Amino acid sequence: MVTIEAFSRLVSGVYAAALTPQLWGPAVRDIHREMGGTVGTLGMAPDGTSSIIGDTTLPADALASYAQHYGRLDHVLTNVMKGPVGAVRTGSELVAPRRHSEFYSCWLRPNDMGDGLMVRLTGPPENYFFIVGAPPRTEFFDTPDRVKLMSGLIAHLQQALRTQDAVAPLPAGDGEPAGVLDVIRHGVILVGGDHLVINLNAAAERICRAGDGLCMRSGRFAAMNTAAEQELHGAIRNALTDGGSRVRRGRSLSCRRPSGVRPYVIHVLPYPRRDTDVHLGGQMAVVLIIDPENEPEPATELLQRLYHLTRSEAEIALQVMRGVDLKQTSEELSLSLSTVRTHLQHVFDKTDTHRQAELVRVLIALCP
């Protein structure tokens, strides 16, 4: 079973890669090694043909042969991309039944990918996917612990990809990272030495002003609880210098809130300096603050447009996302229970989902 420290390290790596795409390789490598796999791949298939974003161990000739020939025979990825967003698929389900195929014999097995775990992270237009591959063994790769770890990483990978896509169109060398990151709903703070705040986005400013566990003191980012403050300062120190060892590391932590609502989740990451950042001084850290209480839901109009839902179907989909049961939904929308069930089945069909949990994952992934 993965430890909390190991999981925090994996998550920190994922969010660091969201801001610096060159770090996807190390982040993906860390994940597949923690799972005991031999290959990790983050990719996208926008038009039915895949491309690799962060691959760790596949040699160049394997990638070339896939692009030239074997990609057309890839029944595994085809089935993953036809399935629901956020569902973990397994080698025992998708690979084992077709071990006599050319794709398995000539490409998967020679590249140590005769087993593994796969997940479709997003829908169109990007169609991101993530795969951890492993060689075929006596026991299948899909142990409960590995599936649980993969499932736990999905939401973080999805959020990191949304962050990356929001930042990607921005011009390189922008000296105001917080200004550009105002498009991100999570709080983002750029912190320098002595925990001094260099800049922050609008969401972070709202969080600090609320004074519900986090705040600003004399221009420094701080927590209101002593224990949380010590942990936060230690994480920032590690991201800046790690005690002078020159190995800068990220860390994740939580911060309880006096209001009693769910704690903030905080990821502290080293900020990768560029030559154009010399005017900002020494080393810096990026603090990402996630408020579990501030998870916006997609508008009914967006659901209608993306999945061709009717107004009633979209409203029922949002009720499911809020955790409202079908009986209460029928009362609130003045519809019979049988009508609600019929509409929900239409929602499943149109969103290519089969259970309410799958539907919730799809709806959460749509939040900008």
Produce a short descriptive summary.
InterPro entries: Sig_transdc_resp-reg_C-effctor, Tscrpt_reg_LuxR_C, WH-like_DNA-bd_sf. The protein has 368 residues and is of the alpha+beta class.
CATH superfamily of the largest domain: GAF domain
CATH topology of the largest domain: Beta-Lactamase
Specify the structural class.
Answer: alpha+beta
Q: Rg from C-alpha positions?
A: 22 Å
Which geometry do the CA atoms define?
Answer: globular
Overall structural domain count: 3
By DSSP, the count of extended strands is: 12
List keywords for this structure.
Beta-Lactamase; about 375 residues; 12 strands; Sig_transdc_resp-reg_C-effctor; alpha+beta; globular; five-stranded antiparallel sheet; single chain; Arc Repressor Mutant, subunit A
Explain this structure.
With 368 residues, the protein is α+β, with helices and mostly antiparallel strands. It folds into three domains: 4-167, 2-Layer Sandwich (Beta-Lactamase); 177-290, Beta-Lactamase, CATH 3.30.450.20; 300-365, Orthogonal Bundle (Arc Repressor Mutant, subunit A). It is built from 15 helices and twelve strands. A five-stranded antiparallel β-sheet has the order 2-1-5-4-3, with helices on both faces. It has a five-stranded antiparallel β-sheet with strand order 7-6-12-11-10, with helices on both faces. It has a two-stranded antiparallel sheet with strand order 8-9. Strand 6 and strand 7 (197-200) form a beta hairpin. The protein is globular and about 65 Å long. The two termini are 33 Å apart. Residues 170-179 and 274-281 have low confidence and may be disordered.
